[in-house]
Design goal:
The chain is an alpha/beta fold. The protein has helices at 15-24, 61-86, 105-108, 141-148, 150-158, 167-172, 229-242, 267-276, 293-301, 317-324, 335-338, 355-367, 369-387, 389-402, and strands at 2-6, 28-33, 44-48, 92-96, 114-117, 161-164, 181-183, 200-202, 208-210, 215-222, 247-253, 285-289, 305-308, 329-332, 348-350. Helix 7 packs parallel to helix 8 (267-276), helix 10 crosses helix 13 and helix 13 (369-387) packs parallel to helix 14 (389-402).
Length: 413
Amino acid sequence: MRILFVHQNMPGQYRELLAWLVGQGGHELVFLTQRRDHPDMPGVRQVIYRPHHVAAEDAYGLSKVWEEAAGTGYGAAQAMAGLRDEGFVPDIVLGHTGWGELLFVKQVLPDTPVLGFFEYYYRARGGPVGFDPEEPPAATAPFLLAARNAVPNSAILTVDRGISPTLWQRDTFPASFHDRLSVCHDGIRTDRLGPDPGVELNLGRAGRLTRDDEVVTYVARNMERTRGFHVLMRALPAIQAARPKARILIVGGSGASYGRASAAEGGFRAELEAEVGHLVDWDRVHFLGRVPYEAFRKIVQVSRCHIYLTMPFVLSWSLLEAMAMEATIVASDVAPVREVMTDGETGRLVDFHDPAALAETVTDVLARPEAHAGLGRAACAYVVAEYDFLTACLPRQIAEINALVPPERRLHL
């Protein structure tokens, strides 16, 4: 099969599917992306495109996102036209709809089916906006969010079908979208995860950690409000007071992936350090920055308690991966987390807004690891059954692709 993948940050949600297709052999795979430092993937032709237009910094706020998306979409369409003129006409296009890359695909490839990835529909209620009382939304927020949704509103008319990775994410979209959107997660390779009782983590001068140590872990792309970094930091003094041997490992960058960046010099981390720093034993807190995947895996495997905090927003791969590693997880009691985790069965859920409850629950997990060990085993079993790439998610993805292509072009497991 000839497949065109489109995602500005290759490989994005297509990491596992691409690897499987390459391993299967016999397919012509082209990936259209803006990312110049993309990972080298033998068997995949990587094509860089540029947005045709970028909105000015002072562009009108209510149309700026659409202006950016239109420029991105036209740039991607020009690259698609170049591929078409070279003779590459795909049997199907798989692409993310969030940045406008698919807006004009049908103007270039009118007869090619398009399966779009719909990640999130912005809304003024029920998501991260307005969820944190410390960060009330501006009066213009509902208008700006509605304007952002011009992109998915147009994309749903462009694609032949769409997928969303979780039910909660699908349900952020209007009901009018639902008959064209299937719930189909990108999947994780649980066969490459699992627990490791003998794992060792070397922190250099800070020493070596094993499963015998009281290790608490927190992982996010960036240390920011949407992923509850402030809640974690405010819980640290109580955790450390109750468990004087606990070591806290924090993985994440200093930027802002979602929402506003901190105005403090040094970012949100510096802001929280100024707030609670005098109460924290910094010798037992280790900021590890962004780490390679193998290091992430060891960090979670050595953990006695893994913390996952989020406002109601897109579910992180890291939560499902931690579940697959049989981690004992304390997570935010919000709808997207409840979709994959049940309090007292596969993890512990706490009020996002309550650092004291987070500290109390984490302390209990640290003090009584055997009493909570069953949570990790149950979490792993659930994730393997529902989110394993090879056995659960790949068959669903193949079914979605095969529904759009002729019988002779269909994929086979």
